[in-house]
Amino acid sequence: MCGIVGYIGEKNTKEILLDGLKELEYRGYDSAGIAVLQNGEFSNYKAIGKLINLEEKTKDFTTEGFAVGIGHTRWATHGKPTELNAHPHLGESSYVVHNGIIENYAELKKELIYSGVKFLSQTDTEVIVHQFEKNLKSSADAFEAFSKTINELDGAYAILLTTKSEPKTIFFAKHGSPMLFGINEEGEKYFASSDTPLIGKAKEVNYFEDGDYGYVRPDEIVILDKDAKQKEAIFSKLSQNKLSAQKDGFRFFMEKEIYEQGDVISDTLMGRLNDDEIIFDELDKDFFASINEIKLCACGTSYHSALTASYLFERYAKIRTSVEIASEFRYREPIMAKDTLFVVISQSGETADTLETLKMAKNAGLRTLVICNVDNSSMVRLADATILTRAGIEKGVASTKAFATQVTIFWMMSLYIAKIKNTLASSEISRQISLLREVPASVKVTDEMHEKLKRLSKRYLHGHGFFFIGRDIFYPLALEGALKLKEISYLHAEGYPSGEMKHGPIALADPELFTIALLPEHLHYEKSKSNVEELSARDSTICAISSKEFDKADDFIAISKCKDYMLEFFEMMVVVQLLSLEISVRLGNDVDMPRNLAKSVTVE
Fold it and tell me: DSSP for 496-508?
């Protein structure tokens, strides 16, 4: 997702900032910018697209001698990827860059507009610089104004701010988004949102803790904690391994991406939840007018998220929903009625089969929507409307956080349509929204859970195959769990509806058949339990995932007690992802780049 760099020193500030942003490219971005304060004057450059565009804009800009600089790569959340929405954001005499979510930005923005401030962007970030300059007018100095501003912000953030009144200073604040600070023997000072921009430049780094804020000058470092008490920087040696730094200490990108699902789901929810309604600014108010059916079309993992959506749409929005495999749909001579909303789902927005079905729907005159992770992709440019999942770049070939964010979008959309069609009571929509707010915590990986799955994985390396089974919305999750396992372990795995066992597949049951049983307490538990007991009676090896102890299980993975089956869904999702990962690791496979597979399938 978004990346931050900062520099105080006498070397080529422009090149240091650009080099730092290049090291953050792996995180994904759609625009970038830098601001340099030198000799009392700011120079600011922004560009959409790749960093080469920013380099071209700054080719005639040079820095000599002492300067203060900040830079940013942005992944669009509030507002489209435009130069106006790119960071750094400007006040009258200050610039700011920011990662995270300012949850109360709307209230602050309203007050600032009332006081005469004019906003240039659609972002939440611009509020910070204007609030700072408002406070500066009534404060003894810039740091007092910055401290007031930080106290007025709700949400998660990593912030760097520079201002003309303090031309040798970078102000910083960290709460919920990562940021570190580095030094070297030459007296230079560096900031970044991850280790990689500082490798080769800083020798030692201080990792800011939540609630830390302060300022840095060439000869001074001031850090205050959340209680406004001054503290000393704690420096540690910086690893010089860039690949390891990109993985943030995890063994694999896939593992890192499983762990960061809580953060990206928070981004997915950002700005889209009110207490009693879902907000999709991307959709016109009459987007669902005259729509009587939804047809979802996708491939692979995205197909599984679409199947999940079909249960939610029909259950909550009471709208007829069908799901299609894109590679089949495009050759089936399908009937497409004009009252159908055609929805395509793709992480990359470039999946060839799915893109062709979108073209078919457009040619047939259907209204179209794309659920996608990459703005300006082919599907985004072609569809009538787009909802971005905000999952950030996904480097592991086997998708994890893309699936999590797609399902989150579909849950929100089911409530959005239910509100329009009046198919759910307002109290139930509010209850569901409160559940959505709990999802980021539900997908948090605990050390205890991960360690258990590491130990358990050694029991599942041999045998003639796996069944992943579940009912209702847990059937698509079973399909996804089976896909994850076969993608990275190369073991045969199939997902089935639990009730289908007796209709043929149970013939395979024996001790060498491993059954991963999804048993949610709040959805068809007794029915699902009965299906698993049938397999146990045939001596299949059972691994049950549930909040309720199951005495017929050979292995039991306990999830926490949840209020609702959707929270159980997300917890079980993490379990099957990690189990697949650990089995693959024990088999010695390349988890991030499994054989025969590509991240974006752009050929038929």
Answer: EEGGGGGGTGGGG
The backbone torsions φ and ψ at residue 452, rounded to the nearest 5 degrees and listed phi first, read -60, -45
Which candidate in 2, 297, 543, 562 is catalytic? 2
Residue 297 annotated as catalytic = no
Element (H, E) at 242: helix 242-246
- What is the mean predicted confidence (pLDDT) over 373-390? 90
pLDDT at residue number 409? 98
Phi-psi domain of 188 (left: phi exceeds 0; alpha: psi -120 through 50; beta: other): beta
Q: Could you say which of 57, 529, 548, 599 is catalytic?
A: 599
Q: Which of 406, 363, 358 is nearest to 382 (CA)?
A: 358
Report in angstroms the alpha-carbon separations of 406 from 175, 566, 571. 27, 14, 15
DSSP secondary structure of 196-208: GGGTTT-SEEEEP
Rg (CA), the chain: 25
DSSP single-letter state for residue 313? I
Contact yes or no for 225/232 (Cβ under 8 A):
no
pLDDT category, 603, cuts 50, 70, 90?
very low
pTM, to two decimals: 0.77
Q: What is the mean pLDDT of residues 523-535?
A: 87
Please give the mean pLDDT across all residues of the chain.
92
Q: Which helix (H) or strand (E) holds 216?
A: strand 213-217
140: left (phi over 0), alpha (psi -120 to 50) or beta: alpha
Nearest partner of 586 among 445, 477, 515, 491, judged by Cα: 491
User: What confidence tens digit (pLDDT) does each residue in 141-170 have?
Assistant: 999 999 999 999 998 899 999 999 999 999
Smallest Cα–Cα separation from 239: which of 287, 282, 293, 200?
A: 200
**Residue 243, number of CB atoms within 10 A of its CB:** 9
Residues in the chain: 604
Q: Where are the beta strands (DSSP E) in 485-592?
A: 493-497, 513-519, 541-546, 555-558
Contacts of 448-453 with C-beta under 8 Å, sequence gap 24+, read: 449/557, 449/574, 449/575, 449/578, 450/578, 452/557, 453/557, 453/575, 453/578, 453/579, 453/582
- Mean pLDDT check: name the lowest of 229-233, 333-337, 437-441, 536-540: 536-540
Residue 604 has pLDDT above 70, yes or no: no
CA dist list (Å): 120 to 111, 113, 394: 16, 11, 31
With vertex at residue 9, the alpha carbon angle to CA 5 and CA 10, rounded to the nearest 5 degrees, is 130
Give the separation between CA 100 and CA 208, rounded to whole angstroms.
15
The verdict on whether 527 is a catalytic residue reads no
- Cα gap 148→169, rounded to integer Å: 17
Q: Residues 411-434: what's their mean pLDDT?
A: 97
CA dist., res. 476 & res. 350, Å (int): 23
